[in-house]
Amino acid sequence: MALKLSSLVSPSVVRRRLPLVGAFCVLSFGLSNLCPSFNPSSKTGCAQSLHFLPILGSKVDSSVHSTNRIRMEASSKTVPSIVVYVTVPNKEAGKKLAESIVKEKLAACVNRVPGIESVYEWKGEVQTDPEELLIIKTRESLLDALTQHVKANHEYELPEVIALPITGGNLQYLEWIKNSTRD
């Protein structure tokens, strides 16, 4: 027995609920996340389509400024930081490499994630191998030194070293990354 959507939800209910959904999204995700080019003083980008903007007034300005406070460039107590992924063949290799990275102050923290399975092409054949993933938090300026350390201490011919920028987060944690790594 198939039911039509119109028999479950009337058009008037949809019209009444839709603004609530939009408001929930704005409040949950923030204007700057929903519209990266949003600038409350600008008349360009997607701010033009925000007809409710005058209603929000100064609350919009303060939400945009509070969002900026968690960005990396907003604090002199932090440095540009990255997350680096490195895979290793087993638990022992992961433990040894993670400890040497932290001991050399090339990273503040290394998470070891066991039980991953990598599928990749190597020398013309598809391979599947169990591995451990290292998630490394460090300064952007240490990427070259970290890469050289991984290459010198890794048993793979071509070790994975992939960096992603940290664009924001807990300021105290980001300060800790700075303070726990070498200059």
TrEMBL record:
It holds the Pfam family CutA1. Belongs to the CutA family. PANTHER family: DIVALENT CATION TOLERANCE CUTA-RELATED, FI09726P. This is Protein CutA, chloroplastic-like. The lineage of its organism: Eukaryota, Viridiplantae, Streptophyta, Embryophyta, Tracheophyta.
